[in-house]
Amino acid sequence: MDMERWRGRVALVTGASSGIGAAVAAGLYRAGLKVAVCARRLEKLEDVRRSLDATEEQMLCMQVDLRSEESILSMFEHIRKVWGGVDVLVNNAGLGHNASLIDGDVGLWREMLDVNVLALCICTQQAVQDMLRRGQEGHVIHLSSMSGHRVPKASGVYSASKYAVRSLTEGLRKELREREANIRISSISPGFVQTEFAEKYHQSKEAAEEIYGQYQTLRAEDLAETVCFVLSAPAHMQVHDILMRPTSQES
Ligand SMILES: NC(=O)c1ccc[n+]([C@@H]2O[C@H](COP(=O)([O-])OP(=O)(O)OC[C@H]3O[C@@H](n4cnc5c(N)ncnc54)[C@H](OP(=O)(O)O)[C@@H]3O)[C@@H](O)[C@H]2O)c1
Q: Which one of 8, 26, 99, 184 is separated from 49 by 20 to 30 angstroms, measured CA to CA?
């Protein structure tokens, strides 16, 4: 994978305090990008930075609650002040709740839609404005899900949020083409990846162990490599969506 043209450029990875985001941030840092990371758990972001021996000048850790538009806007202002703006945005932050359509809690639905959809839109808008202003090659990558391609049992709202990401990928592609912008948009749709996701979804460590114990699931590092693959594709080639499952996953 040729990541040379991205060396020294600025990436923002949302939700990098655990799981896929932490692995993607590490992958981009190792590829020579300056990496801004955000999440609510600042200490976890700093653990990621320390584990890479990165300095604060190489990895910018920001405590942000993506449910707040104001927090998102101040994060982008801060990145502009420090590094001039964002060239690569990885919209990774996201969550699921086991909150059914018939008797699920509306607050849990709202959190999924706020983070998985609305925050992704606001971050995309901010980053694309930076990319247009900077005039260099830019790339937006959405972390979607296989749940954006078929609806698993009892996950109507989570799936809806990922179907929305699928629509937002194509919507942005059309807008970028209309402007002839030097910016690509890609989506990555994994099946089960072993992270904190399942424990939070089911509010149960045991349920998560059962899901991740059935067979070899995807590793967060597999996703980090996929992000680098998408970025390293030649400029004339836009990867639109990558659907990937653990080999043994049936659904
Ligand atoms: N794991 C899977 O099987 C799987 C499969 C398909 C798709 N995905 C997608 O992959 C992405 C990453 O998930 P993961 O598996 O790596 O799960 P994870 O380990 O739970 O990571 C989720 C990340 O999102 C951040 N986040 C959640 N709510 C936030 C908020 N309000 N403000 C800021 N950050 C927030 C979390 O940080 P804080 O809690 O510190 O704020 C954390 O860093 C998600 O979009 C998910 O839908 C996961």
A: 184
Mutate to test the pocket of ligand 1, among 63, 75, 95, 110 (most ligand atoms within 8 A of CB): 95
Residue ranges of domains in the chain: 4-244
Whether this model's pTM surpasses 0.90 = yes
- Residue 131 in 3-state DSSP? helix
pLDDT, tens digit, 9 for 90 and up, residues 84-99: 999 999 999 999 999 9
CA separation for the pair 213, 244 (Å, rounded):
19
Q: For 4-244, CATH number?
A: 3.40.50.720
- Using alpha carbons, select from 63, 71, 65, 19 the residue that is nearest to residue 42: 63
Whose C-alpha lies nearest to ligand 1, atom 39? 40
